[in-house]
Amino acid sequence: MDLGGTVLLSIVAYGLMAVIAMLAAVMVRGIVVLLERVQQRRQAVAVPTPVSISVVPARDETALQVAAIAAAVYAVVGAHRLVHISEAARSPAWTTTGRAILQTSHAPRRTSR
After folding, report:
1. Which residue of 9, 41, 50, 95 has the fewest CB atoms within a 10 Å radius of its CB?
2. What secondary structure, in 3-state letters, does 50-97 show?
3. What sign for the dihedral angle of Cα 97, 100, 103, 107?
4. Helix or strand or coil: residue 14?
5. Which residues of 17-39 are buried (b: 16+ CB within 10 A; e: fewer)?
6. Measuring CA to CA, which residue among 29, 8, 11 is closest to residue 19?
7. Hey, CA dihedral for 97, 102, 107, 110, is it positive or negative?
8. If you compute the radius of gyration of the chain from its CA atoms, what whole number of angstroms results?
9. Whole-angstrom Cα distance, residue 70 to residue 77?
10. Where are the domains of the chain?
């Protein structure tokens, strides 16, 4: 193949790529327009959702949990007075250990050859 044939082949390949890119752009634009129309139809047809409003005060789930814990302690231990119920304090040892494990797990292993 001589230089003229190579140049002609390059021009044809460039033109073919331009046509394929244009077809892909038109196809993407068509999909976008189609999805916009479908979304507009859904919004037009959408029925408002009924909302129920209650005037009854909400139940305090925490009080129910404390009562259940107190009943369980009374059943196991007997008649004792509970002085304080709260969440346990978190120790920094757990986070320190977790970070140490994480950081050493990614360290490269040194092997002798």
Report:
1. 50
2. CCCCCCCCCCCHHHHHHHHHHHHHHHHHCCCCCCCCCCCCCCHHHHHH
3. negative
4. helix
5. eeeeeeeeeeeeeeeeeeeeeee
6. 11
7. positive
8. 36
9. 10
10. 1-45
| Contact of 66 with 86, CB cutoff 8 Å | no
Residues, the chain: 113
Q: Which amino acid is at 6?
A: T
CB 3 within 8 A of CB 11: no
Can you tell me which residue has the tokens 């059943």?
A: 75
The encoded tokens of residue 107 equal 């360290």
Residue 75's pLDDT band, with cuts at 50, 70 and 90, is: confident
Tell me the pLDDT band of 112, cut-offs 50, 70 and 90. Answer: low
